[in-house]
Amino acid sequence: MTSVNIGGTAEPGVGVTQTKYYTGCEPPNQLRLEAGDKLGPITVAYETYGQLNKDKSNAILAVHAFTGDAHAAGIDPETKLPGWWEFMIGPGRAFDTNKYFVICQNNLGGCRGTTGPSSINPKTGKRYGLTFPMITLGDIVTVQRLLLDHLGIEKLLCVAGGSMAGMIALQWVASTPERVKSAIPISTVLKHSPQQIAFNEVGRQAIMSDPAWRKGDYYDHGQPERGLALARMIGHITYMSEESMETKFSRKQTKAEFLHKFTPDFEVESYLQYRGSNFVKRFDANSYLYLSKAMDNFDLAGNKLFPAGRPVTTRFLVLASASDWLYPSHQTLDIVKLLKERHADAVYCEIPSTYGHDAFLIKNEEQIRLVRSFLETTYNGR
Amino acid sequence: MTSVNIGGTAEPGVGVTQTKYYTGCEPPNQLRLEAGDKLGPITVAYETYGQLNKDKSNAILAVHAFTGDAHAAGIDPETKLPGWWEFMIGPGRAFDTNKYFVICQNNLGGCRGTTGPSSINPKTGKRYGLTFPMITLGDIVTVQRLLLDHLGIEKLLCVAGGSMAGMIALQWVASTPERVKSAIPISTVLKHSPQQIAFNEVGRQAIMSDPAWRKGDYYDHGQPERGLALARMIGHITYMSEESMETKFSRKQTKAEFLHKFTPDFEVESYLQYRGSNFVKRFDANSYLYLSKAMDNFDLAGNKLFPAGRPVTTRFLVLASASDWLYPSHQTLDIVKLLKERHADAVYCEIPSTYGHDAFLIKNEEQIRLVRSFLETTYNGR
User: Fold this and answer.
1) Cα separation, A216 vs B186, whole angstroms
2) CA B222 → CA A88, A206, B175, B199, distances in Å?
3) Fewer beta carbons within 10 angstroms: which end of chain A, N or C?
4) Smallest Cα distance from B241 to chain A, Å
C-alpha cells in the first residue's frame, strides 16, 4: 500500500513520463454515485505507457493501492522518482510496454490530481472537505471507465493491482465483466474482516482525534499532521511482516537526538516516525478517511462478484504473499474458491516473499514471470 | 493485557477483598534503580487471598499485565467488579486459596495505588510526570521483593503471569532465582521483536501527539484522553485474534448515533471506541509510556536469563495461546529452548484458544488444569 518503489530495477524503463488530465461529467451531466449523490465535474489524472494498438485490444489498467497515484512507471520529471510499479511496467517487463498499452490513473477520492475531498468544489469555490460525497469502489471503477471511454477503449486486456487495487480489479468484473478480458487481483480480499476494519478505524480515529482536523475543514490551516502521521505509522506496521521487520531493524538502537525520556531508542521507532512525517507531505487526511471507508464498505462475497446465471468469461491470475498478515492468504483463497465454483479460468499462486502485505510492490521474479506468462496467454488467445 | 475479567465463573470465589498498602524506601533509604536513579518512598498497593502457612512455603505471586492492578480475585467493595484473574484464583481453583497464599500487587510505575508517574513526589509536593525516573522490569521485581520481605516470605512457591507479567516472572528467575521455586510465564517473550516495539511506539506516539499530553505535565488539566484512548484501541486489536473478532463482530452494523460521515458503521468500530474511552477513566497516560518502554527495553535473550555456570533450580510451566499473533508461540518457544539447553525442569503447552493474546485472561479449562497440577507437583515436592 506504499507508493514508493522499493527494490527498483536497473534496466531502462519507459523514461520520463508525464501526468495527463481528463475532465468529464461537467454539469448538468454529472456522475450519479452509487449512494445517489451527484458529482461533477470530475478530473482524472493519468499516465500511459506503450502504444495502443489498432484494434485497441492491448490496454491494461494498472490500478494503484490506497495511497498511491497515477505515476506507476518511468521517471517523474519533477520529483525524478520512479513509478510505484517500476519493476513491473516497461519494455520487456511483465507489463511489456513494447506489446501493451498500460494506463494508470489516480483513483477518485484521492489527492494526486483526480477529484477528491481536497479538490475545489466549483459550486462554492472552496475545497470539498466533508461535503465531498461518500464514494464506493464501484464509483472508482465508474470513473476509471470514463477515462477508457475517452481513450476509445471498449475492452481491457487486463485490470491488475494489489491490496485495494485488487478489490477494484474484482469490482471491475462485478460491474462490467464484458469490458475485462482478464484480471490480476493481488493480496486482496472479497470483503474486509473486522480486524481489517479495526485497523482502518484506528487510522481514521487518529486523524479525527487531531484537533487540527477541524471536522475536515483544515485546508486554510494545514493538515492534521500528527494524526495523519500516526495513521500511517499504524498502517506501515501492518504492511510489513514480523520477519521483514526483524531483518531490517532487529533491536538496533537509534542515534536520534535526545529530546525527552521517550525519544526513540530503537531504529524501528525512528523509521516509523520518518515514514509518518513523510507521508503527511504527499497525502490528504480526508482522502485517507474516504478511501479507507470505501474499502471497509466493499463487499463482493456471496453472489455479488458473479450474479447467479451470468457466465464467467474473465480469466484470473490471483496472487497472495505468504507473509501477508494484514490480508492473509486464506482470505485471498476465498476469492479463488468463488471463481472455481463458477468454473472460472483461474490460477492461484502464493508468492514466497517475506515482505508481508507490501510484497507485490517489491521486485520479485516469481510475480514478474507469472504475470508475464498470464498476459501472453490472454493476449494471444484473443 | 486487559484487566477486565472476561469469562468469569459461577462458583463462589474469595469474596469481598480489600486493597492494602505498604510503604517502604523512605529517605534516606531510597531504592537505587537499575539505571542509577534513586526513588523513594515507594508505596505498594496489594491484595492477598488465602492464608500464609507456618513455614511460609505456600506463597504465590500473581503478577498483572501491562495495565492491570492489584485486584486479581474476589469482589472489589467499591466497584463490585471481580478480579482480573477471578477464574484462576479462589477456593478449589487453579491457584487454590484453600492451600496457597496468593499475593498480587500493582506494579511499580503503574497508577492503581503503587508509586508511579502520577504519584506525588514528596520532594516537590507535585506529581512526578516525566520527572519520574525510567524504570525496568528488574526494578518492578525489586519492588515486588520489598513487599515479600515485609510479609516475611523468603521464597515464593511460584511467580505467575501472562504477557508483561510473564516477562516479570522470567525477570524474577534472572534476578533472584534462589527466591522462586517455580515460574509460570504465559504468552510472553524473552525480548520484544521490532514489531512488538513498533506497536508500543505507535501507542506512545498517540499519547504524545495529543496536545493535552503537555510533555507529561497534564495533571492539573486532565488526561490526554484522545491519545490515550487511541493507544488503547491499537493495543486492543493486537490483544484479540482475527478469529475472535470475526466471531464477535463479523461485519455487523452499528446503531451508533450519526454525527458525521465517519461515525462508526460497524460494531467493531464502536466497540474499539468504547474500550478506548473506558480505558481513559482508569489508566494514566504517563504510566502507559513508562511501562511500555520498560517492556521494550526488557531483554533476557542469550545468557541473561541464566548466567553461565549457575545451576537452574526453578521449575517452569510455559504456556502460549495458539491464536496469539502479538506474542506468537514461536517466541514463547525460544524461552523453552533456552530452558531445555540448561536442563531445566520445564513443560511447554500451547492452549488451543481462539482468543488471541488475551486468552490467559479468559476462562479455559486447559489452563486451569495445567496450572493446578503443576502447582501440586511443585508444592508436594518441596
Assistant:
1) 44
2) 52, 19, 38, 25
3) C
4) 8
Q: Count other Cβ atoms within 10 Å, centred on residue B16.
A: 10
Q: Which residues of B touch A357 (CB under 8 A)?
A: none
* Separation CA A311–CA B337 (nearest Å): 55
Distance of alpha carbon B332 from alpha carbon B321, whole angstroms = 10
**Cell numbers 498511491 label which residue?**
A68
Q: Which residues pair with B313 in a beta bridge?
A: none
**The three cell numbers locating residue A359:** 510484497
The upper half-sphere exposure of residue A78, i.e. CA atoms within 13 Å in the direction of its Cβ, equals: 3
ipTM of the shown complex: 0.94
Provide CB contacts within 8 A for A341, sequence distance 6+.
Answer: none
Phi, psi (rounded to 5 degrees) for B75: -110, 130
Instruction: Quote the cell numbers at residue B369.
Output: 488444569
Closest CA to B132 of B42, B13, B266: B42
Spatial separation of the C-alpha atoms in residues B247 and A194, rounded to whole Å: 9
Active site residue B357: yes
Q: Say which DSSP state A30 is in.
A: P
3 state SS of A207: helix
Lookup: cell for A63:
490500478
Can you tell me whether residue B253 is helix, strand or coil? strand
Cis peptide bond prior to B12, omega within 30° of 0:
no
Any B CB within 8 A of A201 CB: yes
Residue linked to cell 491470475? A317
- In 3D space, the residue among B213, B232, B209 whose CA is nearest the CA of residue A228 turns out to be B209
CB A296 within 8 A of CB A194: no
Contact B194 A264 (CB under 8 A): no
pLDDT in tens, B107-158: 999 999 999 999 999 999 999 999 999 999 999 999 999 999 999 999 999 9
